Amino acid sequence: MINVLTRYLTLFVLTLLVLAALSFSLAYLFPGDVLTNLTGLTPQNDMQREALARQYKLDQPYVVQFYHYLGQLLSGNWGHSFISGLPLREEIGIAMPATIELATYAMLIALIVGVPVGYYAGMRSYTPIDHTINSVSLFSYSFPVFWLALLFILVFSLELGIAPLSGRVSLLFDIPDATGFILLDILLAEDIDKGLALSDALHHMALPTLAIAIITTAAMIRMTRRSVIDVLGRPYITAARSRGLSRWQIFSRHIVRNALLPILPLMAIQITTLITNAMIVETLFSWPGIGNWLIQAIYQRDYPALRVGMLAVSTLVITLTILVDLFNRLIDPSREKYERATV
């Protein structure tokens, strides 16, 4: 286990170094003067340019500049936004939890709905019920998330008027930003009607969460169904039937765990899709997450926000992917043996 943790830690550190190098290089890839891209200031004379260049180490070789950039990142000094003037660390600390919250609730819906339905479809494989579930999941998975979100806005917000069009909570509620997660902040807030505020927040959260969850649920159904069908064809299932075990005994003793293990590595792949879909949906529902924040930074050419925001999102995706894969190794130690055998 120590060797596994060491390999994962090494992979994590090397990946972050590569991402930091890409983030650092963006300052030179953006159009315009590098010094202006980093500071938001246009030097009025050579003396001012030289002072700013010394401050940002632009008068040093690239390696020294990159080392200085890493030191600033590790110390928490991520720079300031050109537009708001606020530290980027604070802005990302506010925007990132909103994205994580949206993606987490969508994943919970996908797990609660998708896995049981996938098990049921797999146990009824190649029957009319299975064909129906498989067709509906394939149809749902084929929707582009932005098209589905726009459809929800058109039907439920504009036509029926039963769901809010944007935001996380109504302006009637003044919710202090304690954790960045709106439901937790409401529970921690004082001097408000928490029941009414929670209802309003869930009302705002329903459409963006469903827009993401429908596609993720469809993917989960298809992965689970395929895994169950593969397990049903294994020799130990035939042996269990020959011993006279009932269908429920075979399902509970042999199918549930063995069909779930192959799904966990695929969930790591779904994390990237989930975060990406959440960032797309945020821009349509004006959800104050990292995706909407980055889009505004692009429109306003806030270059420091763009490169630090890219690094923050990439770090989040890499961290979650490695954690899911590590969790899969912990509950399925035999995977390490098979991987070594295939080398």
State the CATH class of the domain at 95-289. Answer: Mainly Alpha
Counting helices, strands and paired strands, the structural category is mainly alpha
Query: Per CATH, which architecture of the domain at 95-289?
Result: Orthogonal Bundle
What's the end-to-end separation, in Å? Answer: 19 Å
In terms of DSSP E residues, the strand content is: under 5%
CATH H-level superfamily title of the domain at 95-289: MetI-like
Net shape: globular
Number of strands: 0
Q: What is the count of DSSP helices, taking H or I runs of 4+ residues?
A: 15
Poorly predicted runs are 337-343
Protein name: ABC transporter permease
Keywords: Cell inner membrane, Cell membrane, Membrane, Transmembrane, Transmembrane helix, Transport
Transmembrane segments: 100-121, 141-162, 201-221, 259-285, 305-327
Family: Belongs to the binding-protein-dependent transport system permease family. OppBC subfamily.
Task: Explain the overall architecture.
- With 343 residues, the protein is an all-alpha fold.
- It has a domain at 95-289: MetI-like (MetI-like fold), CATH 1.10.3720.
- The chain has helices at residues 2-29, 34-39, 46-55, 62-74, 88-123, 128-141, 145-159, 182-188, 194-232, 235-242, 247-260, 263-285, 290-299, 303-331, 334-342.
- The chain is globular.
- Mean pLDDT is 85; it is low at 337-343.
- It is a multi-pass membrane protein.
- Pfam families: BPD_transp_1.
- It comes from Alteromonas salexigens.
Attribute tags:
343 residues; 15 helices; MetI-like fold; single chain; mainly alpha; cell membrane; transmembrane helix; cell inner membrane
